[in-house]
Amino acid sequence: MTEIFDDLEGMRAEFNDALSGTETPEALQQVKVLFLGKKGKLTSWLKNLGSLPPEERPRAGEAVNSLRDDFESRLADRRVFLEERQSSEVERRSGLDVTLPARGRTWGGIHPVAQLMHDVVEILAGLGFSVALGPEIEDDFHNFEALNIPASHPARDMQDTFYFPDGHLLRTHTSPVQVRSMLAHGAPLRIACPGKVYRKDSDPTHSPMFNQLEGLLVEKDISVADMKGCLEVLMEGIFARPLKARYRGSYFPFTEPSLELDIECVECSGKNPSCRICKGTGWLEVAGLGMVHPNVLRSGGIDPEVFNGFAWGIGLDRLAMLKYGLTDLRVLFDGNVPYLLSGRTFSC
Amino acid sequence: MLITWNLLKDILSIPASVEEVAERLTLTGCEVESLTRPGEKLRGIRIARVNSLRPHPEKETLWVAEMDDGRGTALVVTAAPNLSAGDYVPWGRPGAVLADGTVLGAKDFGSVHSEGMLLSAEELGVPQAADEFGILRLPEDAPLGEDAPSWLGLDDVVLDLSVTPNRGDLLSLLGVAREVYALFPGSEWKKNPADLPESGAKDWPVPFQGITLKTPGCSRYCLGFVTDLKGGSSPLRVRIALSLLGMRPISPMVDATNLAMLTLGQPTHAFDALRLPAPEITVRPSRPGEKFTTLDGKSHIMAEGDMLITSGDVPVGIAGVMGGENSEILPETKTVFIESASFDSLSVSRTSRRLGIPSEAAFRYARTVDRKMAPVALKYIFSLLEEWSAGTAGFAILDRTDCPDDDRRTVPLTREKLGKVLLTDDLDEASAILNRLGIIEKSSSPEGRIFSVPSWRPDISIEEDLLEEVGRIRGYNETLAPRLPRVLYGRGDIGPVTRLKGDLRKILLSRGYVELLNYSFLSPSFISLLRLPEEDRRARPLSLANPLSAEQSKMRTTLLPGLLRGVERSVLAGWRTGIRVFELGRVFLPLPEGGHEEVEKVAGVVYGGRDGRLPWGHSEEEDFFSLKGDVLTLGESRGICLDFLRGHEPFGHEGQTARILSAGRDGGYLLRLKPAVEKELDCAPLYAFEFDLGILENPVLPNFRELTPYPPVLRDISLFVPADSSVDEVISRIRSSGGDLLQDVRLFDIYSGKGVPEGFRSLAFSLSYQKKDQTLKDEAVEEIHSTIRNTLTSFGYILR
Q1: Beta strands B798-799 and B713-722, pairing class
Q2: If you count residue pairs, one on A and one on B, with CB atoms under 8 Å apart, how many are there?
Q3: Residue B163: its chain A contacts at CB < 8 A?
Q4: Which CATH architecture describes the domain B496-696?
Q5: CATH number of B43-152
Q6: Going by CATH, does the domain composed of B713-799 fall within 3.30.70.380?
Q7: How close, in Å, is residue A70 to chain B by CA atoms?
Q8: What's the whole-number mean pLDDT along residues A212-223?
Q9: CB B544 to CB A110 under 8 A?
Q10: Do residues B704 and B786 make contact, with C-beta atoms less than 8 angstroms apart?
Q11: Which residues have CB under 8 Å from B44's CB, separation 6+?
Q12: Is the pLDDT of residue A346 over 60?
């Protein structure tokens, strides 16, 4: 009786040897036939079970069947192993150079000034400001008169203007949109007015067309402190970090009091006396602002004894240059694709 | 506006450094753009006497001077022709440093060993102070051996102030002194330059009929009289001071008027008394067309509203702008009338700008000049001329005034507004600040105070103006801690246009387009390049009246030129591969009934590049349909299905131009450029699209079908269709005969050539049928499918 089991153990060892030697599905099939085929070793063993004494048959049968199950499962495992190994080799042989350039279109870019404009209106929307837009070709009333800039006022020298033969003009700031919004909506009002503006000026730091964003808030009991708060949230939003702010007295015909906002130099934070961005002053002039002049509120149909507020203007081009480290204003408008793409963080 | 620190300190004692004063001026609204120290580099230059002077023994053009600076003598060789023995001059011994940083040494000129240099005004950094060619000769009272730069006043600091247009009062030394007095409570007046003794009252020794004012634009006109004018030049230190203040010294008379203007802010003008046409002055409006030649020799034609100074009805000056050639003082002039007047700022500003004469006088009048300064400036000039012994004054001032002196205007300041805007209720502090500015409290109540405003501050007229004075001097940094407005009235809305533009930017970015931002101007040459016919309103752009250049003289009517220029620019910049650019912006179109409209557009241009080679072969090449995909995507992002129809553009390829439609509205074009245009641009092929943003304005919300578990049944149809039948036409015929069960029609194959009848092309469609509440039976599909096939046959299509 024990001999049977010794024989079975011998066959198991033989099977193990044969199986571990298989390297292809074909060899595996041969092993299967050798042991489990019609004339296979285990099969013939099964056939011999009948020659055993009846009392030994159940145990011997159990042992043989168990050995067959084991062989079958081991054959299946080996098959999966060999197939996967073969597939891996095929995959490896057809491997790609993943460093090849991408297929399709990967070169797009949003203009830095447009990107900044979207960023700014998002920040301002969070403060309750809605975007207001208006015409770029304006009339004298909306661009000057309504903003407390009478004809021949020396303040007009500050804004050299392009005119059309019929007396219309290219707006010199987006302030006319403020006037139009006040007339259309009255107070309370919080608006942000992005857009192109034009001045007759062209040199390395002035372009005849540039992009401005003005804000206007007209509500009740508004103080200079409210204005400072909004501007500082805005600047922190633009540069994604808190920056020191400095306010200076200034003059604009449409605000009283008028101020200018400087922020700490984004390049050197005031640490480099020969900084090319702040010229060593440590400060960058970024916004003109002030409490809306009562005459302007009146032009907008708003009673300055009931409502007051503030307005500001920022140059999107200059801020974009500061944010993205651009040095020449004119390249923003000259259509040079390589340049516009060169500022990106990746290359191809 | 230049002032110097030493001149300011002559007027005020200031308990602060020049840097502190500059910082404080800047923060309170008068930006100090620079501080310069003209004598900064000068070292080791002393006042020395020329003991003797003899020609150089060998070199003909040179002189040898024996110099004495009180510390010994030495020889110096000089080429200057203006020296004589006994002159006092600045001498730099070896080791001395000049204004430009040059370090002097000793040098042999032939047999003479020369110790350093005798110096000219230029070498001291003030070339304009020279009144003769050569070495700068010093007056006889120059103290031997002293440091020449400091004795000359070169150890000064020049402040360059940027004065805002509302603060004409700061365009003088006196005005800046008043401001500094207010900014530094510890400062005190030393000598106010406007405090002058009464001038003489002698009668004029010439007959003079008087002054007549015939225009409200001149409210005060003073005339002074000076005889025995000396020619020559002003004292050296005056010339140096003028140089530091940015003025060229000319003659004592002119220098005195300039100094009066720089010190008191009052422009004046001197007429040659003998050349004045008549013994009287009349200020009157100009007559249209009247001609006048200013003292710079330029002739001008007057317009209505200009103000002229006339004498015997002959113009002798444009009021507040510039005097005339006909009565200008000459080097030999001995007797002068000096005008010191008050002219209306708007009138002077208008005339000066129209005539293009930005004179110092006009600049100041445009920013208003203190009316009270008119006679003071004359007294100041008299005192200078007498001090310099350059003329005889002491005559009475003729003072013609049209209206009583502007008595001090009053402006209130209330506790309520002070609290609202500046968050303080300290009226006492406010009053103290205003008081130092010369704005004096007149009366007080618990609600507020009333202040009277001095004549030199016409910019202050309402309460907000006082708030500004208090706010800026209290400082906006130390006070008013930032906070957010406490009431929020509603959410902020970016608005449909800005939101749409943001969406389109992101889509075009992901489709490989680079955004350009072009000028809104149009070069007229593009109208012919694009072959726009006259009846096309894009060929009739709005023209600027005062363009910077012809290139920028029109307003764009299409975004295409800017994008094409961008492609050109990029190719020039060395970009060789494919270029996809887009722009979002406005065009300006004339309206048939007159006027114009501004239309928001989106446009794109695609160029395969000078070097279109790709590792992927041709599959990546751009063509009409790759751009069509881009345009469709823009529509799809809004839920809008754009349609394309064969169409026309003057600059479009006649076989590859489509109109873009949204719900039947023509919004623009998609095209390949006309080969001739491509040739002119030397880029081919070029594809472009441009359409009104308006067609994407109203997004269409998705309309979802009911979810059905029953699968669609697919059937194909292959057809030969006449070559001039569009795919859209075939699909719409399939759809209109397909009934409710037909869900989708998709073109999957297109072929022409072998096996296709002449004049036809082969199209193959996959049709999908579906019923939402049950599985479609084959018979039902068959029935519809054959209906479709029959219908198509009836249109002359051939089933395959």
Answers
A1: antiparallel
A2: 271
A3: none
A4: 2-Layer Sandwich (3.30)
A5: 2.40.50.140
A6: yes
A7: 45
A8: 97
A9: no
A10: no
A11: B92, B93, B95, B96, B97, B104
A12: no
